[in-house]
Amino acid sequence: MAFLFDPLSVLFVFLILLGAVPNLFYSRGYLSHIERRWHYRIHYFAFILSMLGVVVAANGVTFLLFWELMSLTSWQLILTEPEEEGTIPAARFYFFMTHFGFVFLLLFFLIATDGDLQIGFAQMHGIVAHFAYPSLLFFFLLFGFLSKAGAVPLHVWLPYAHPAAPSPVSALMSGVMLKIAIYGMFRFFLDVLYPWPLEWGILVLVVGALSSLVGVLYALSEHDIKALLANHSIENIGIILIGFGMGMIFDTLGLGILSSFAFIAALFHTFNHMSFKSLLFMGAGSVLHETHTKNIEAYGGLIKAMPITAWTFLLAAVSISALPPTNGFLSEWMIFQSLLSSNTITDMSLKLAIPFAIFALALTGGLAIACFVKAYGITFLGLQRSANARHAHEVNAAMRLGMLAMAGVVLSLMLFAPSYIRLFDTALVSLGRVGAYDAIFPEGIWHMHSVAINGGVVSVLILLASLLAVTSLLLYAYRVLGVKERLHRTWACGYRTGPRTQYSATGFAGPIRRFFSWLYRPQEHLHKEAIPGHESKFTDFSYEVHVRPLFERSLYDSAAAAANWISYWVYRLAHFEQTRYAAMIFNLTLMVLFSYRIFAHEFSWATFALESVVMLISIKVLIIGEKE
Which of 73, 99, 161, 242 could make a disulfide contact with 94, Cβ separation 3.0–4.6 Å? Predict the structure, then answer.
């Protein structure tokens, strides 16, 4: 084994530690909810160690060893609570998908190393440069890393695995593990496969745009809080890929400074997603174990009982929604600037792909805001919708400390964005890219510039000061005007507002769900029990909507059906008796001979009739055997 500590490796070691250290505190408090504690502890620390091993690996055998260890330990962590419904199928699905990607990575390394997995990445670049089919290696890497990152169409395991795993594990998998795949793309695309054709960058860009749209659309339809957050991981991986794809495109076109700007934006959003998604899963885990359900419809009014959880969740929700002046806003602003910097490009394929990416990113931003208004409002505001929500209280000190520490990471990425961008720039320069830090901050660290001609400028200091000033002004006006608190319930159409008459998550997402019904294909279930003799009075009334993911329905179910059909006939062929084997071989031989005579112009009606009779007899033997 060999290890490498260059700026890119150190950068991702830093990312892993930023995600893991607060998680350690949260996990310590979370252990009281876990029965198989030693199983959890062993695989938890092995999981963190394996991720560190992947990013410092210096050759193929080390990389593959730690990659497989990362997959196996995370698989076992999903199985921490096997008695929970859906845990074992989710773990099985994750196991299949992660090893599906591993096969492609293994194929890449076997070709790129010429069979010697102990050689370094620099030597691999020399071998790949003389390989006749570099696009084959590109697709091997793309399938290998995107199956782990959770990009469309290899994303379907996320909404199953993340809800089944314990919440600290969900935070690590979504916040940190998915970014290990992004590290792999930076390492092997920029260090081994470089240079690349324009088509590769366009493909990554389109995959990123589709992932961002699909992720946010299915997040909006989810009422399982952890599945909702898992779908947002698909969305944010797509945003990262948009930045990465633009970096590849600009590099191919010889626009070095724009390429570095786009790659920096992708790295910045990688760190940002790690921070706010980890915090969101921590908050979701706290709510889950106080209410004992993942259904958002059973929450409500938790801000009073769980103030620290509520306020840290709000910080993460605002950040993931890319509202200024948060860290999520800064990285998405950079990615937008990268897309808008392409207005001088004349290539027709780019004139189609880049506007589509702009449309996808803009729509994703708006839908993400709507989704987290739903998630936060239904969970923490209003009245409690269940007995468990009414009896909820704040989590223990260790879990609160973990959430506050991760909130500090989120704030640091906003307040110290120039320092982080310098780290990203250093890592890219070490990989042979053009330095872009001085072009981004030409007037000092408080004004971030786009590097394009006539690009935009944003200032974190001005945005933050404006936000604080407006908030202070509103609070001052509230006190000066002497607004009195209402001591009565809200009037709502002549009825008293109660838990069952509040706006629900299903109702909130209804208009968007109807607009995208061609994608969702929702299944609606209405259940009501009327009082005997009163058709308009009910003892119980419920309405449920179930949305089945498009890719799972159209792609994975079809693939599973085809695999079952093939495996059935392979099994049947393997258990034929000798008579049926002879009939099958004889039948195939006659078909070959008959085809040969037609193509050789030796066709004879007499021969055709004789062979047809013999063929029918052999087919009859096969059918009789099948019926038996």
Answer: 161
> Does the pLDDT of residue 13 top 90, yes or no?
yes
**Which residues touch 320 (CB under 8 Å, ≥6 apart)?**
232, 236, 273, 276, 277, 280, 328, 368, 372
CB 265 within 8 A of CB 414: no
Task: Using the Cα atoms of residue 330, residue 335, residue 338 and residue 339 in order, give the sign of their dihedral.
Answer: negative
Residue 626 pLDDT class (50, 70, 90 cuts): very low
Paired tokens of 387: 């007995």
Most confident of 322-331, 347-356, 579-588: 322-331
- Cβ partners under 8 Å of residue 437, min gap 6: 421, 422, 425
pLDDT of residue 533: 61
Dist CA 518 CA 497 (whole Å): 34
Mean pLDDT of the chain: 86
* Cα–Cα dist 285/381, whole Å: 18
Contact 146/66 with Cβ under 8 angstroms?
no
Please report which confidence band the pLDDT of residue 406 belongs to, taking 50, 70 and 90 as the band edges: very high
Task: Give DSSP secondary structure letters for 438-479.
Answer: HHH-TT-TT-EE-SSTT--EE-HHHHHHHHHHHHHHHHHHHH
Over residues 468-486, the pLDDT tens digits come to 999 899 888 877 776 666 6
What distance in Å separates the CA atoms of residue 241 and residue 145, rounded to the nearest whole number? 12
User: Which whole number is the average pLDDT over 219-239?
Assistant: 92
| Residue 59: pLDDT over 80 | yes
Question: Which of 104, 107, 15, 93 minimizes the C-alpha distance to 54?
Answer: 15
Bridge partners for 540 per DSSP: 529
How far apart CA 235 and CA 229 sit, in angstroms, is 10
Instruction: For residues 467 and 462, give the distance between their C-alpha atoms in angstroms, rounded to a whole number.
Output: 9
Q: Of 175-184, 428-437, 574-583, which range is least confident?
A: 574-583
Asked if residues 452 and 340 have their Cβ atoms less than 8 Å apart, the reply is: yes
CA–CA dist 516, 521 (Å, integer): 8
As a whole number of angstroms, the distance between CA 299 and CA 163 comes to 17
pLDDT at residue 130, as a whole number: 86
Q: What gap in Å lies between CA 543 and CA 528, rounded to an integer?
A: 9
Residue 538's H or E segment, with its range, is strand 534-546
Establish whether the linkage from the previous residue to 195 is cis, with ω within 30° of 0. Answer: yes
Question: In whole angstroms, how far apart are CA 45 and each of 52, 169, 514, 597?
Answer: 11, 11, 45, 68
Query: Which of 71, 182, 59, 77 has the alpha carbon at shortest distance from 123?
Result: 59
Per-residue tokens: 131: 């390989």
- Assign 260 a pLDDT band (cuts: 50, 70, 90): very high
> Hey, is 492 helix, strand or coil?
strand
CA atoms within 13 A on the CB side of 180: 31
542 vs 152, 315, 494, 500, CA distance in Å? 34, 33, 22, 10
- CA R_g for the chain: 29
Q: How far apart are CA 167 and CA 230, in angstroms?
A: 12
Q: Which two tokens mark 220?
A: 């909006």
In angstroms, the CA 283 to CA 297 distance is: 16
130 Cβ contact partners less than 8 Å away, ≥ 6 residues apart: none
For residue 301, the model assigns a pLDDT of: 87
Structure tokens at 265: 């934006």
The DSSP secondary-structure symbol of 120 reads B
